[in-house]
């Protein structure tokens, strides 16, 4: 069990770094000390550092194979990651009172919900695509625990946030705001409640998605130590 100690400690630290600031009293105190921008910057920095440690610890954990690697498996994360980057670029700091943070309800247009038409929780959906895509080529116990936990957290978080927002803003108000949005990807599109508009597509956010994808692709080998590119 000692060989798994670093992985367990890193996982515990990462979970605590999210669970403790989520408590209303702690969150309010940190915001009072750091300000809203300072709190978000510190929270993001700590999250990135601990996530990097957690991924590195998973790589150093004892290798327990659950399935054999095959070259085709590398295509799965490579196909899903551009979509995840788009979700993150369009979801980050976007007016969306239906997801965590509940940002800018006054600027949210329920008739044209933007990325919320694809998913009310684009950041969690992006996390789900990242995690699920990386499970496939990483068929060892430590990485399946790592990415499987993130995938399960994303799925559970979508439902949990929906219930929490329904309580905080009231079910009737939530129903009105969510009328043309989706929980599962494209749900509102498929049942005719929402139609995307190319005129409303933000080229700046699309460019940010491209830069984010290129950065992740180029930094993967020097930071993680493994090339993310599938064999051609």
Automatic annotation (TrEMBL):
One Pfam family, short name: NnrU
Domain of life of the source: Bacteria
Localization (cell): Membrane
Positions of transmembrane segments: 6-26, 38-59, 79-98, 118-136, 142-161, 203-224
InterPro entries: NnrU_dom
Membrane topology value: Multi-pass membrane protein
Keywords: Membrane, Transmembrane, Transmembrane helix
Record bears the keyword Ribosomal protein: no
GO CC annotation terms, alphabetical: membrane
Transmembrane recorded as keyword: yes
Stretches assigned to the NnrU domain: 8-228
Protein name: NnrU family protein
Annotated organism of origin: Rhodopila globiformis (Rhodopseudomonas globiformis)
């Amino acid at each position: 069990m000692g060989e798994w100690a670093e992985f367990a400690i890193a996982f515990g630290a990462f979970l605590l770094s999210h669970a403790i600031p989520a408590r209303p009293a702690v969150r309010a105190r940190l915001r009072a000390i750091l300000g809203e921008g300072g709190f978000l910057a510190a929270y993001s920095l700590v999250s990135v550092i601990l996530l990097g440690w957690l991924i590195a610890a998973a790589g150093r954990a004892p290798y327990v194979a659950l399935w054999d690697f095959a070259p085709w498996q590398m295509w799965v994360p490579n196909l899903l990651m551009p979509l995840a980057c788009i979700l993150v670029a369009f979801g980050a700091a976007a007016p969306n009172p239906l997801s965590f943070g509940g940002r800018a309800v006054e600027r949210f247009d329920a008739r044209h919900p933007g990325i919320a038409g694809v998913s009310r929780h684009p950041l969690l959906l992006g996390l789900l695509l990242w995690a699920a895509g990386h499970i496939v080529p990483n068929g060892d116990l430590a990485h399946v625990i790592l990415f499987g936990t993130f995938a399960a957290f994303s799925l559970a978080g979508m439902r949990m946030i929906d219930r929490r927002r329904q309580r905080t803003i009231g079910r009737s108000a939530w129903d009105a705001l969510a009328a043309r949005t989706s929980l599962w990807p494209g749900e509102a599109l498929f049942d005719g409640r929402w139609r995307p508009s190319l005129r409303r597509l933000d080229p700046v956010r699309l460019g940010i998605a491209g830069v984010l994808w290129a950065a992740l692709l180029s930094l993967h080998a020097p930071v993680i130590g493994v090339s993310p590119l599938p064999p051609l």
